[in-house]
Every structure is written in structure tokens, then in C-alpha cells.
């Protein structure tokens, strides 16, 4: 079980994510352009990695999403392995509708032969419920009757996985940043290694770099404060308490230096309280956030953006360096993955050829 020193923060973060699950899905997963760009890169990365393992290395694969949230990967790969023509008209129509909104999710016969199963774990029961509803709405409920599944629980408690199918564990879109601070991040590194080491599987952590807080994080969290709350570096804080909802009038994109953002303030019933409130960055609080990489809001939401050196140190301490890779996202995709980094533990030495092909 998780250490007692993490238990209180674990429960607090769990409550935060249970409360914001629906809004997070609508406003960030389905909205902010910098986040969707990063996610689209992650998906391309995983598509190519899975294709390589299945086609070039001849492996059957079990994909396991650590911090699965609302089933982004289950939905993507569920559509890719499902041939809608084999199902009833209503299921076919549901799949077709979702595919139109996600053109990268067409049926992939090769992937269907090699992706044996997909699992996922998240500590938020609200996120898991949302994930199950999304799968059903997409016509993919049949998968959850078999080897595709969700688990509600702690990413710190992963057990060793069987060698067949080859386990590929992924923690994507900075899930490590909302895993109960540095102590939780260490537990995640250790847990993911434990899950794949004996089975000679693969563990991948995709996260934001602390060096990108100023260029990406500030504007990102200011633009989505209706999801996670008003960041502590913005003033005034007259309407910062949870009973008010602040709707930014426009997204801030990466590298936007504007220290102000305009929001409309609503009460819990959705009634307008104040229109056009201008929030400004407090210079001292802003510089502290940039230096620490620690995002905090007035609703107890926290996220950490760890530096490249910090992730490197955890790889050295908790994974085998000779079987690990640490990759700056910009070396793979300068446009979409600029703020990202990837830690990869390749216990069985499966990925050398692929990464060499990518110039890593």
C-alpha cells in the first residue's frame, strides 16, 4: 500500500479529481489546443511503438495505462482493433460517429492481431465511471466483457505482470505530475519497474519538463482555471474560492507573455456575478512557480512539472540506466512535443532498433 506519509495527499488529490472529472474532460481533454497537440503526439508515438513490437518484433502486446483517466487510450485502440462491419447497426453507427470525430482511429487489422488486451488504473472513481460511459457510447462496451478492463486503485501498488502478452505500461500526459508530489513520483517509478522487470516488459512515463513552466504551464492553467481553480500566482483572489467559477474569455497559447487574463465570474448556479474581471500575475508568486515547477490553485489542485535533470536522476536511482532511455520531446517533434520528455524502461531490450530509427 502507499506510504502513510503520502496517504493524506493521496486522498485529497483523489477528491479533487473526482470533483473535476467531467469539467476536465470537456475543457482540457476535449479543448485546450496545446494539450491536444501534446496528446496527439503521444498517440502517434504509441501507434508507431506498438506497430514495431507487433510487426517487427513479432510480439503480442498488453497495453496498460497507468492513470488512465477517462479512457483516451482505451477509446483510441478500441476503435483501431474493432471492425464495425462485424457488429449490429446501432454499434456500427456509434463507432462510425466517433471515428468521424477522431480520424486517426480507423480500423487497423495488423494492430487488431497483435494488441491482445488493454487495461488501465486510476484512483478517481469518477474518471473510471466516465471512461466506461465513453466506451459504451462509442460502441465498444463489448471489449470490456473480455480482456479490456479498468481498475480503480493506486498506481503505487502495481504487481508484476506476466510475460505474455508483452506488458507495455504507459503513464501519459504528465500523470506523474499529479501523483502526490516528488514522493509519489518516486513511488510511480518504482511501481512501474516492479510491474515489468521480471517479465522483460516496457514502462514509459511521458511528462512535461519543468523548463517549460514559463512558456507553457502559466498560460495553460490560466486558460483552464474553470477546471482546476484560480492559480495562486494570479490576483486579485476575491472570487478564488470554490463557490465561484471563472470562465476565461480566450485561451492563452504557448509562449504568450501577457501577464493578464480576462474572465467572467459565475456562481454555483451559473449566474453571472462579475463580467470582465482582469486577473494579473503577481511577479513574486509567478517567479516562485517557474523556479519550483509546482502548480497550485485555490481549489487544492496541484501539478508538478519536473526538470529534465530531476527525471534523469530518478531514472538513475530507480531504473537500470543501461536499460533506460530519457528523451526530450523536442528531439522527436519540435512543434507538438516541445514541453515534453519521455522516460523509458526497456527491461527486455525490445526498442533499440526503433529508437535508432528515430535517431535516439
What would you say this structure looks like, in words?
The chain is α/β, with parallel strands linked by helices and 360 residues long. It folds into two domains: 4-209 and 306-357, Vaccinia Virus protein VP39 (Rossmann fold, 3-Layer(aba) Sandwich); 231-298, no CATH class. It contains twelve helices and 13 strands. It has a seven-stranded mixed β-sheet with strand order 3-2-1-4-5-13-12, sandwiched between helices. Strands 6-9-8-7 form a four-stranded antiparallel β-sheet. β10 (294-296) and β11 (302-304) form a beta hairpin. α1 runs parallel beside α6. It starts with a helix and ends with a helix.
Give a quick summary of the entry:
The chain is an alpha/beta fold and 360 residues long. 42% of the residues lie in helices and 19% in strands.
Question: Any descriptors?
Answer:
single chain; 360 residues; alpha/beta; seven-stranded mixed sheet; four-stranded antiparallel sheet; 42% helix
Cα-atom Rg, whole angstroms?
Answer: 20 Å
Which H/E pattern describes the elements? HHEHHHEHEEHEHHEEEEHEEHEEH
In the predicted model, the low-confidence regions spanning at least 5 consecutive residues are none
- Architecture per CATH nomenclature, i.e. the level-2 architecture of the largest domain: 3-Layer(aba) Sandwich
Strand content range? 15-25%
Assign a percent range to the helix content.
Answer: 40-55%
Spatial order of strands in the largest sheet: 3-2-1-4-5-13-12
Number of strands: 13
Return the structural class. alpha/beta
CATH homologous superfamily name of the largest domain? Vaccinia Virus protein VP39
Count, helices: 12
Oligomer: single chain
User: CATH class of the largest domain, please?
Assistant: Alpha Beta
The biggest sheet amounts to: 7 strands, mixed
Overall pLDDT metric: 93
What is the first-to-last residue Cα distance?
A: 36 Å
Counting structural domains, the number is 2
Q: How would the global form be characterised?
A: globular
- What is the CATH topology classification name of the largest domain? Rossmann fold
